[in-house]
Amino acid sequence: MEGSSPVDDEQTQLVNRQGTRTYHGLLDPRGPYLRWVAVFFMCFLSFGSYYCYDNPAGLEDVMKSDLKISSSTFTAFYSWYSWPNVVLAAVGGILIDKWLGVARGATVFCAFIVVGQIIFGFGGYFRLIWLMNAGRFVFGIGGESLSSAQNAYAVSWFFGKQLNFVFGLQLSFARVGSLVNMNTIHRIYDSLDKDSTGPHRIGTTLLIAVSTCFVSLVCALILWTLDIRRRKVIQEDHPHDPADEFHIRDIRHFSASLYCVFIICVFYYVAIFPFIAAAQLLFISKYNLSPTWSNACNSLVYFMSAILSPLLGYVVDKTGRNLYWLMGSITTTIFAHALLAFLFVHPVVPLVLMGISYSILAASLWPMVAFLVPKKMLGTAYGFMQSIQNLGLAVMNIFTGLILDSYGYFILEVFFIICLEIALLAAAFLYVYNSIKKGILNDSPSARRAKQDLLDGKTDATINAVVDSPVSPDENNGKVSYT
C-alpha cells in the first residue's frame, strides 16, 4: 500500500494471518490436540500391511500341504515381498521427499498393498505359485514404502515432541496387526467349508484378509485431510524457503553413523522376521505343540511388542542413551536364540525375551535417523533404510529355506546368532564413533538440549563437522532441536 510503513505492513499481515485461523477444538492445527488425533490414524496406517505380511507364517502348515510346496518355496513368499524393496523402498522415499509428499505417497502405497493382496489371494485360490509370487511382489512395493511414509509422518508431526514414544506407539499398533493375524488367520481357514479344495480355502482366507488393507487405505485418506490443514498453517507461519527443498544430490551427505544404523537394522531383523516366518514347524517338531498353540507362541514376539513398544519408547524419551538400549536389546535377543538352539526350555521363555528386546530396539534404533539427517531428507533416509533391510531379508529368507531343507532348525538358529553378533559389533562401533565425533545418539535429554544451545545459529555444514549429526529445524521457531 502506497505510503504505508513497515510496521503497518507487518500489522496487516498479522491480521490477515489471524483471519485464516478457522479451525477450532481438536482440529485446530495450532492447538495441542490435532497431532494426537493424527497419531491415532498413523498407528492404523500400516495395520493391513502387517496383518497380511505374515499371512504365510500363520498358514505355514496348511500352505505347504494344500499347495504342495517345499520350505524354500514357502519362504520365497517373503523373498518376493522383499526383492522389489531392495530398490523401490529407497525410490519411494525419494518420491515422498521430492514429488509426492508424505500424504499422497501413503495413499498410493496403500493402494499397492490392496492390489497385491488380492493378486496373492487369487494365486492361492487357483494354486498358481507364480501368481502368488507376483502378488507378494506388488504387495511389497507398497508395504515398505508405506512404512517409510509412516516414519516420515511421525517425525514431521512429533520431532522434538515425544518422538521415541510415537515410534513405539506406531510399532505397537503395527504389531497388533501381526498379532491378530497369528491368532485369527488359521481360524478363518478352519472355519471355511471343509468340502472345498485346499487351494480354494487358502485363496478365500487370503482374500478375506484384504479387508484389513482397506482399513489402512481409509486411514491414509483421513491423514491426507489432516495433513493438508497442518501444512497450510506451516506455510502461513513459515513461508517457503528454497533452502528447505530436497535435492537428490543431498544423499551424498549421509553420514557414516547413518550407514552403521542401516547395518544394524539389516542384521538384527534377519534374525526376527525369517525366524517368525518359519518357526511354526519348529514348535511342532521340537516341542510337540499343536498348530494352534504354535501360532500362539509364534505371536508372542508381536504381543510383547504391542504392549511394550509405547512404554519403552516413553522410557527412551525420558532417559536418552539410545545406544545403550540398542546394545542391550541385541544382547538379549542373542540369549533368546541361544535358548531355542541349545536348550529345551519352553519356547514361551525365549519368545518373551525376544519380544521385550525387539520392542527396545525399535524404540531406540529407528528414531536415530531423525538425529542424523535434516527433515527434508527423512523420507529418503527411511527409504534407504527399508531398502537395505529388504535386501538382507530377501537374501536371508532364501537361506532360511535352504538351511531348513538341508540342515534343520539347529543350524538355522546358529545362523541367526551369527547375524545378531554382527549387529552387536556394528552397534559397538557406532558407540565408539559417536563418542569420538561427540554426537548426540547416546546423550541424555538434558545433554541434547545443552548441545542445542551450543549449536543454535550454526549451519548444517558446521553441525556436520562438529557432531556428524545434521539435525532438523523445529517448525515452531526455526531453531535446531533435539528429542
Automatic annotation (TrEMBL):
Keyword set, alphabetical order: Lysosome, Membrane, Transmembrane, Transmembrane helix, Transport
Enzymatic reactions: L-histidyl-L-alpha-amino acid(out) = L-histidyl-L-alpha-amino acid(in); L-histidyl-glycine(out) = L-histidyl-glycine(in); L-arginyl-glycine(out) = L-arginyl-glycine(in); L-arginyl-L-alpha-amino acid(out) = L-arginyl-L-alpha-amino acid(in)
Domain Major facilitator superfamily (MFS) profile: 35-438
UniProt cross-references to SUPFAM superfamilies, sorted A to Z: MFS general substrate transporter
InterPro entries given in the database record: MFS, MFS_dom, MFS_trans_sf, MFSD1
Matching Pfam families: MFS_1
Entry function: Lysosomal dipeptide uniporter that selectively exports lysine, arginine or histidine-containing dipeptides with a net positive charge from the lysosome lumen into the cytosol. Could play a role in a specific type of protein O-glycosylation indirectly regulating macrophages migration and tissue invasion. Also essential for liver homeostasis.
Family: Belongs to the major facilitator superfamily.
The protein, known as: Lysosomal dipeptide transporter MFSD1
